[in-house]
Amino acid sequence: MKVLVCGGAGYIGSHAVKALLREGFEVVIFDNFSSGKEELVAGGEVVRGDLDDKGEVGRVFRARRFDVVLHFASLIQVGESFLNPQRYYTHNLSTSLNLFEAMLEAGVKRIIFSSSAAVYGIPQETPITESHPLSPINPYGHTKLFVERILEDYDKAYGLKHISLRYFNAAGADPDAQMGEMHDPETHLIPNLLLYLLGKKAGFDLYGTKFPTPDGTAIRDYIHVTDLAEAHVLALRRLLASGESDAVNLGASRGFSVLEVVRKVEEVTGRKIAYRVRPERLGDVPVLLASKEKAEKILGWKLRYSDLEKIIDTAWQWHRKIVQKTG
Predict the structure, then answer these.
(1) Cα angle for residues 151, 171, 289 (degrees, 5° grid)
(2) Of 98, 229, 238, 281, which one has the greatest count of Cβ atoms within 10 A?
(3) CA atoms within 13 A on the CB side of 60
């Protein structure tokens, strides 16, 4: 089974590549390395290319025969999407359309799409199920929903079968410390806390202390990136076996506030964190919590690493390794 992984040198994509290789799949990574890193390549064949370039995408499919595609490549910063929505709409939609066109021309009709909990917008209920209304509140979330809609239409018209995986908060690092987060800029909570403790951040800003939550800080559902990667393998097998399109949440069904995460980081690392309180950011919601019932039922998915302490510990080992290596 040959799998094309677009964005396979990124944070989540690289962990998925490792999981695929471990399960015996033949993997080709297609990445322009604008945000992906050489250090995160877990194996397989690497093709440098850009989904913005139809010619480059077409050549990959003409040179090889793929059974299925995993699509991770997109811009992902919610805050930036408010400041520059044109960039997000142009990039996230055009790259996806180029990929889908090349797939159809090559007769490849199965894809796992990296979507987001951002498609739901402000939760009307928690935990959020897949039947929750889809009403994004930021341009990034709109682009993810638009791609999901495109896939639904392409399924009806062309038989392009897909599973859209709606991530909640990916966190942690490979338990072997082979790979982890290397975003630039880094916008995620846990790595920013750890980079601050390692002297790579001048300070730590805590955004929002007046949310309607027990301690006033936002509550999020953290899912270990290795569990997330394994869900992709299960979704791929499901798609190959059933041929049915679907959308599935990937979360842990339990939430932790920002302050709870701060305290757990202090506990795991043995170091104290001084933080500055800032106003809440545009688009932040008080609580974002997934229902994982469907993923467990149709994928047979079981969490192995998504305990908050394990998430933080694996991330800590990874960031310490990188700082020791790069100085």
Answers:
(1) 65
(2) 229
(3) 30
Q: Distance between CA 151 and CA 146 in Å, rounded?
A: 9
The verdict on whether 275 is a catalytic residue reads no
CATH number of 2-171+222-250: 3.40.50.720
The tokens describing 274, both together, are 């001084």
- Output phi, psi for 41, to 5 deg: -70, 120
pLDDT at 324: 87
Provide φ and ψ at 220, rounded to 5°: -130, 155
Question: Catalytic pick from 11, 88, 140, 222?
Answer: 140
State yes or no: pLDDT of 236 exceeds 70.
yes
pLDDT digits over 257-279, tens only? 999 999 999 999 999 999 999 99
* Residue type (1 letter), 171: A
What pLDDT is attached to residue 327? 66
List, for residues 285-299, the tens digit of each pLDDT value. 899 999 999 999 999
Structure tokens at 66: 């793929």
Domain range summary for the chain, segments of one domain joined by +: 2-171+222-250, 189-220+253-326
